[in-house]
Amino acid sequence: MNTADQNFDALRLNLPPAPKPLGVYKPCLIDGKYLYVSGHGTVQDDGSLIMGRIGDTMTAEEGKLAARQVGLAILSTIKTNLGSLNKVKRVIKVLGMVNCKPDFEKHPFIINGCSELFAKVWGDDNGVGVRSAVGMGSLPGNIPVEIEALFELF
Amino acid sequence: MNTADQNFDALRLNLPPAPKPLGVYKPCLIDGKYLYVSGHGTVQDDGSLIMGRIGDTMTAEEGKLAARQVGLAILSTIKTNLGSLNKVKRVIKVLGMVNCKPDFEKHPFIINGCSELFAKVWGDDNGVGVRSAVGMGSLPGNIPVEIEALFELF
Amino acid sequence: MNTADQNFDALRLNLPPAPKPLGVYKPCLIDGKYLYVSGHGTVQDDGSLIMGRIGDTMTAEEGKLAARQVGLAILSTIKTNLGSLNKVKRVIKVLGMVNCKPDFEKHPFIINGCSELFAKVWGDDNGVGVRSAVGMGSLPGNIPVEIEALFELF
Q1: Chain A residues close to B33, C-beta within 8 Å
Q2: What are C94-114's pLDDT values in tens digits?
Q3: Engineered SS bond to B93: which of B44, B87, B150, C28, CB 3.0-4.6 Å?
Q4: Averaged pLDDT of chain B
Q5: Is pLDDT at C1 greater than 90 in this prediction?
Q6: What pLDDT shows up at residue B6?
Q7: CB-based contact (8 Å) between B109 and chain C?
Q8: Within an 8 Å CB–CB cutoff, is residue B153 touching chain C?
Q9: Are A136 and B140 inside 8 Å of each other by CB?
Q10: Which residues make Cβ contacts (< 8 Å) with residue A95, sequence separation at least 6?
Q11: Of C99, C102, C134, the CB nearest to A39
């Protein structure tokens, strides 16, 4: 069985730089065997953010890719702070927040962009936790997706 | 003292079918003595969803009933996955998310539809935890209420 | 080193009355070494709530002060229920929910009003946890900010 780091390498995706806090908070925090991860945004390889509102300036497909980018930003925070994705045993919980028009209805489709990435890295059982995927009124810097998460560590 | 299952039976309410995931997540996840429950929607007895926006196509009273239906869907997930409501010791946390017009102000009234159900099942102390009841910009499939929860198990 | 209570006293700020639940929930709940705190609103010294929507009837600066007031309400709940702020070891997680116009982008700035208060009370390390700062569609009673939190106790 491959490790999480090996699984990620096989995807041939780039990790963006681990985002620096935009306010008074920590990007992640370890409490015993738990890793809490702050709400992450759509950080790209050059450090800039994907911006837009789904159903308005952005399609659902673009939104799903944006959610995958948020997942990559979370992976980058884990790798930068813990040294390896292998330190994570499993995903416990994901809160996927979508910046979209009030009549948008496909939030689960959007957040799958992140959840499918986690499932590829940690596997179909350990990489999948509980989740809520919901529509916000707005998000910081007009990013289309923000995701916070809770992981169990080895 | 009655058990949670006995308390629920005394309410003479139907449990809807336990909802299947609409994306890459688990309906619930056990971690030690904790049960994490994904965001649940307004699943009815025939498996269909109550849809609508509170303050727009739906009254507050209808919204409160919809929140009770979300509570029933959560009970169904617990019963299906754990076999009995008696496995739950107490409610720790509820996040109640309301799909409503921007000028709606009675979110706590809506989410009480779920919280009052939990209080009847597990009692006025163990059935009541911390809570936030807030207004979203939108919810999946235009459901009026989505609720996620954390329980402590025996 | 000063205690949290001493740090708070040095700020010369008033604690509002601990808010009573507006629905079926507990203001806070202790589970082992964790303190869960319900979503709190902008309770003022006379018990009334600051109301308004940021970017609409309220400026960002007013919103940041409102978030500080929410932080004070949380401190009041802790002091009322645990007797002292010294019982808290550290902030684990904050969810900062902002009631604002859809085009508002400075949510982290708003929620810093609460986070900076916590950092002054429990210090720059223990007083700072993970966080999400996001925009809601609406909040109960049209309050501008609602914040829920998780603390670790000594």
Answers
A1: none
A2: 999 999 999 999 999 999 999
A3: B150
A4: 97
A5: no
A6: 98
A7: yes
A8: no
A9: no
A10: A39, A131, A132, A134, A147, A148, A149, B148, C132
A11: C134
Q: What domains are defined for chain A?
A: 26-153 (3.30.1330.40)
**B3 vs A139: CA distance, rounded Å:** 43
Interface check for A149 against chain C (CB to CB < 8 A): the answer is: no
Closest among B85, B96, B111, B112 to B147, alpha carbons compared: B96
A37 with A118: CB under 8 angstroms?
no
Query: Residue C71: what residue type?
Result: G
Contacts of B112 in chain C (CB under 8 A): 23-24
Considering only the beta carbons, identify the residue of A23, A36, A137 that sits closest to C135.
A137
Does the beta carbon of B103 lie under 8 angstroms from any beta carbon of chain A?
Answer: no
Region B122-143: what's the mean pLDDT?
A: 98
Residue C25 predicted with pLDDT over 90 = yes
Chain A residues with CB inside 8 Å of B135's CB? 137
Q: How much is the pLDDT for A22?
A: 84
- Over residues A131-151, the mean pLDDT reads 98
Name the residue among B76, B119, B111, B117 with its Cα closest to residue B94. Answer: B111
Phi, psi (rounded to 5 degrees) for C126: -65, -25
DSSP string, chain C: ---HHHHHHHTT-PPPPPPPPSSSS-SEEEETTEEEEEEE--B-TTS-B----BTTTB-HHHHHHHHHHHHHHHHHHHHHHHS-GGGEEEEEEEEEEEEB-TT---HHHHHHHHHHHHHHHH-TTTT--EEEEEEESB-GGG-SEEEEEEEEE-
What is the structure's pLDDT at B1? 80
Closest CA to A147 of A61, A41, A65: A41
pLDDT computed for residue B39 by the predictor: 98
pLDDT digits (tens, 9 = 90+) for B54-97: 999 999 999 999 999 999 999 999 999 999 999 999 999 999 99
pTM score: 0.98
Residue keyed to tokens 């995931």: B21
Look at residues B84, B85, B110 and name the one whose alpha carbon lies nearest to residue B97.
B110
